Amino acid sequence: MEAFARALESIPATLGENAGVNRLDCLLELRALHRGGNSEAGILRDGKAGTIDEALASAETLSHAIEAACETACGLLRVDQVISARGD
Predict the structure, then answer these.
(1) Tens of pLDDT along 77-87?
(2) Is 63 found in the same domain as 45?
(3) What gap in Å lies between CA 28 and CA 54, rounded to an integer?
(4) How confident is the model over 22-73, as pLDDT tens digits?
């Protein structure tokens, strides 16, 4: 679960880094907004964390991406269980 959370966390970190801000500062600011109860917080176009007023990707695309990532993670866990059961 921790690896999955880190993988999802790399998305806002990369968005911030691509906008030219420090990757760690961007994540810490976003975490603080989420802990403060702002569930609509995200990375803005300037790379700063703030409330998202508009989304540039469709909800269907995001839903599909998260679903595919979950299915991939489950498949990898199944393979790991098979290998562990065989004793390799």
Answers:
(1) 888 777 777 76
(2) no
(3) 22
(4) 999 999 999 999 999 998 999 988 889 999 887 767 778 888 999 999 999 8
Place of tokens 């961007």: 26
Residue 73: which domain range? 57-88
Same domain as 42, residue 28: yes
β-strands 41-43, 49-51 pairing: antiparallel
Instruction: Report DSSP letters for 5-25, one per residue.
Output: HHHHHHHHHHHHHHTTS-HHH
Instruction: Please report which helix (H) or strand (E) contains residue 43, including its range.
Output: strand 41-43
Instruction: Supply the pTM of this predicted model.
Output: 0.60
- Number of structural domains found in the chain: 2
Containing H/E element for 47? none
